[in-house]
Design brief:
Layout (H helix, E strand, L loop, with lengths): L13 E8 L3 E4 L15 E7 L10 E8 L4 H12 L2 E6 L13 H4 L5 E7 L4 E5 L13 E7 L2 H11 L4 E7 L6 E6 L5 E6 L7
Parallel strand pairs: 1-3, 4-7, 8-11
Antiparallel strand pairs: 1-2, 4-8, 5-6, 6-7, 9-10, 10-11
Length: about 200
Amino acid sequence: MAHSACGFPVANTTGYALTIRQNDVAINPFNCRYLHFSACMPRHYSVNYVNDSLPEAPMRVTLSPYLNFDGQCRQALTLYHACFGGELKFQTVADSPPMPSGPDCAAALLHPQAIMHGHLVNQDFMIQGTDMSGPEGYRPGNDYGFGVSLDSEDSLRRCVEILAGGGTIAVPPGPTPWADLFAALTDRFGKIWYLNYFGSKSPQ
């Protein structure tokens, strides 16, 4: 069994989150810190290492689903709007300024009414969507990604630098009709990320 610097066991535990800091150890069964070890605690803790040298204040981030459609983005988000209410907006290919395109968007760009970007926003959540698919075209499995709304341009650029390491950038950071700064990328694990700094174009 592995032990921390102070001799506390850090493996073969379950059901509790064990946080190991550089200068202290804390067990958090119910988000309570600095509880004493008890022999009756179950095994298999989840172990997280926290680096105290990192900034304490996290950036403000909103995470939302970003859905790819095969030409049905408008119909789908309209259905979700009928269910959940809120504000629904679309940006079509015809309404969008010319943008650099590769094989990832070529097919959809042939259809002026294809949705470049759509979003449904209410007070509790946001759903974003598009008819723009990846290089291999639309297929189940590449039809979703993580939409992340960030609080500054610097935060967005920092996330691009981190997430794109070992991955690929599909859309470099730049302005779009729906956001002051937008970027799209696939990380080294094959997960798709759509990063927005809405700024003056905030949907809320």
